[in-house]
Input
Amino acid sequence: MRTILVIPAYNEADNLERVVGELIRDYPTYDYVIVNDGSTDATADVCRANKFRFLDLPINLGLSGAFQAGIKYARNRGYDCAIQFDADGQHRPEYLDSLVEAIADYDIVIGSRFVTEEKPHSMRMFGSNILEAIFRLTTRTKVNDPTSGMRAYNRKAINLLASGPNLGPEPDTLAYLVRKKGLTIGEVQVQMGERIAGESYLTAGVSASYMARMVTSMLFFHHFR
Amino acid sequence: MSIALRIILLISAVIVAAFMLRNVKRSKMRIEDTLFWVILTAIVLIIGIFPQIVGFFSTTLGFASEQNFVFLFFIFVALMNGYFTSRANSDLETKVKELTQQIALDRLDHYERKSPSESEK
Output
């Protein structure tokens, strides 16, 4: 199965060399494509200097547009499986094999932090629980870790995600694909690390508008899509 | 409808019309996009010149005063315009996104064609 890692990168110059270097060195069976999302730092220079394969978006589109560019690449080059992979070092490549293994049985496989392990109690996990509940309510599918950013998509999912608006790699898109397109979702247990360098963009305001968007999308808009 | 309100309507119609003409002349706006404003100007002009029309609708629909009808009518028109503007904006965002992605894809294609040894990694 031809598998490609789609690695969106916005201002990840400090992490990219290490994260992608490790992939190339230790996991050469996986192709990858970095999507430089109009970074203002040296991300593109790092890619060029290391001869990384990367899509260079001329302007910043945000995660959904950047990821979709990578998915387009995967579709155009005929890959069977695309895996969404973070450039900040949070996603561990040792779990890639188990994701690919599971994609034989499902259309989408989530690298989940909470299949066999307990969810901790925090504000962030409270949000995760709400999304999980709405996800189950609207799709009748249980997903333990809807916000995990480590996901594998098969060719059917790739083709659906490759063009059009409102298809960002977020829980509401997964719910839409399950509910309206009949895709199946599986989960495999993974561990996630802390980010190596840089700052997470997840502030209180961002989280609140993220939750508002997810909830209205899943509870309301999906009826009409 | 008071004389003052009629005068305000007429003056604003003239100003809007002048702005639109200037925009088109300076190539700031496509003619098809000024259509809304041109029609709006025409309506404002007609209302200013023939206030009987407002009187008719106001009485028929049971408004307390003609001014109320004028206000409500233009609030409705403004909301409609806001709606169409945000829809057009959405369309543009989608188009910009698709174009950006295509540029990046073409860039990589172009780069890999220039250095074929790199493409078969």
Notes: The interface with chain A takes residues 90, 93-94, 96-98, 100-101, 103-105, 107-108, 112, 118, 121 of chain B (CB under 8 Å). The CA atoms of residues 47 and 53 of chain B lie 7 Å apart.
